[in-house]
């Protein structure tokens, strides 16, 4: 059964999407940008934006009753090649033991100019033997 995961983001209702969609055994987490917790403020630091992305992704996965360890696919979008290494380094810290299939790419822009990174993931529930 398909289940929608929502957060307090004003964008979800306004733009007609869910933070995540659970369709067992998968959960698909929409692109996440690095807002500060409880606000619509983006920090002026790429690493902080990435850490914030992972906090939001972790919260969405937990709400869906999944875990970061369930991630099988990650896609990273950055707005400047100079951000590629800092993004990859933070993601490497978060996913060092998980090692999902992933793609890191530069895009010309995201929705707002202060959005420098967007991360989306797919997770698959691990079978319990």
TrEMBL record:
Pfam name, any one: Ribonuc_L-PSP
Domain of life of the source: Bacteria
Gene3D superfamilies assigned to the protein according to its UniProt record, in alphabetical order: RutC-like
Coiled-coil stretches: none
UniProt-recorded name of the protein: Enamine deaminase RidA, house cleaning of reactive enamine intermediates, YjgF/YER057c/UK114 family
Upper taxonomic lineage: Bacteria, Pseudomonadati, Pseudomonadota, Alphaproteobacteria, Hyphomicrobiales
């Amino acid at each position: 059964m398909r289940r929608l995961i929502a957060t307090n983001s004003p964008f979800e209702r306004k733009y007609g999407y869910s933070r995540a969609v659970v369709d067992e055994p998968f959960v698909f987490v929409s692109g996440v940008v690095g807002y500060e917790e409880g606000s619509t403020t983006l920090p002026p630091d790429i690493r902080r934006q990435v850490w914030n992305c992972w906090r939001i992704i972790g919260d969405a996965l937990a709400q869906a009753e999944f875990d970061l360890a369930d991630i099988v696919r990650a896609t990273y979008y950055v707005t400047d090649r100079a951000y590629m290494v800092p993004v990859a380094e933070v993601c490497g810290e978060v996913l060092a033991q998980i090692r999902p299939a992933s793609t890191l790419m530069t895009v010309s822009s995201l929705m707002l100019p202060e959005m420098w990174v967007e991360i989306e993931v797919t997770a698959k529930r691990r079978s319990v033997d």
